[in-house]
Amino acid sequence: MAAYFIAHGTVKDAAKMLEYVDRSGPCVAAFGGEFLTVGEVKSVLTGRHDHKRTAIFKFPDVAAAEGWYNSDAYRALWPLRNAAGDFDFIVMEEF
């Protein structure tokens, strides 16, 4: 069953964020993932949402999403990601 990796983030350094996006794309694709959308949060209707942007990626299944996140190739990008912004990540399975 398909899984979605959802990233909620606030960019701190735009140049580093662009580099991170460019370098992380091949890692996502290697695990069968595809970028679906990214956008700026326009309003919070109920509750809290502490970040300004949300990105959504689709993977074949939860194992692929978690495999990508924990892969050596992606882990090598964590310092760049952390310098680029603050993020919260979740994985959810398609219903």
From TrEMBL:
<feature type="domain" description="DUF1330">
    <location>
        <begin position="3"/>
        <end position="94"/>
    </location>
</feature>
<keyword id="KW-0614">Plasmid</keyword>
<dbReference type="Pfam" id="PF07045">
    <property type="entry name" value="DUF1330"/>
</dbReference>
<dbReference type="InterPro" id="IPR010753">
    <property type="entry name" value="DUF1330"/>
</dbReference>
<dbReference type="InterPro" id="IPR011008">
    <property type="entry name" value="Dimeric_a/b-barrel"/>
</dbReference>
<protein>
    <submittedName>
        <fullName>DUF1330 domain-containing protein</fullName>
    </submittedName>
</protein>
